Amino acid sequence: MRTLLLRLALAIVVIGLLIPQDLKMPVANADRGSYHPRSFWYHPWGPSGTHKGVDIFAQRGTAVHAATGGWVLYCGELSRGGNVVLVLGPKWRLHYYAHLDTIGTARFAWLANGDPIGTVGATGNAKGKPPHLHYSIATLLPYPWRIDGSPQGWKKMFYLDPTGYFADRGLLRNNLRKARKITAMMRITLQERARKRATFTSSFHPSWSASPSSLKKPGS
Ligand SMILES: [Zn+2]
Description:
It is a single chain. The protein has 220 residues and is of the alpha+beta class. It has two domains: 23-160, Glucose Permease (Domain IIA), CATH 2.70.70.10; 173-214, no CATH class. Helices cover 27% and strands 24% of the residues. The chain is built from two helices and nine strands. The chain has helices at residues 2-18, 162-204; strands at 54-57, 63-65, 70-78, 82-89, 93-103, 110-111, 116-120, 132-139, 159-160. Strands 1, 2, 3, 4, 5, 6, 7, 8 and 9 form a nine-stranded antiparallel beta sheet that branches. The longest helix is centred in the C-terminal third of the chain and has 43 residues, at 162-204. The chain is extended. Bound molecules: zinc ion. Residues 51, 53, 55, 134 line the site of zinc ion.
């Protein structure tokens, strides 16, 4: 019986690890300029010592979406976090959204990637500061190899750097956009060149077609 339960528990853990995460920036229209690049683990940081998440700045009322799907464990008001939403997501990771102006989901709701969480605000200990979303990711399965010599560095086995996920995605998207632009430019240049060659050749001999597919040397 005990081994059966153990196997079942292990299976549940493995299934959780296999659920794809596909993390997205949770604040509408935010980009890499919306947060400080060293926001994660910034220190000294008030009573908590180090900053265990990222502060994404936006106007009050800006939509906050689920960075990844999951199960809402808690919605409500905390003294430090203000209006918060806590979601259990793929890979046994907790996603914490804090200082919300309004909460747009309910406790025990199942969220898909991009579903509403609430809006950006300045509640809790962010009161009087510029509105921002405090977003942090904590893993329930510790990653001890991530521990380093920084203040409270041992806690890095639980707290993951969300900016790593945003930066990679942003970079990838930018590079894709650049590659697409270059391909389009190359295509236009090639078409232009083919057209010029076609008109040039046909000016010599009217029987040579102007279509780029028949751009062969005469007689070949
Ligand atoms: Zn913060």
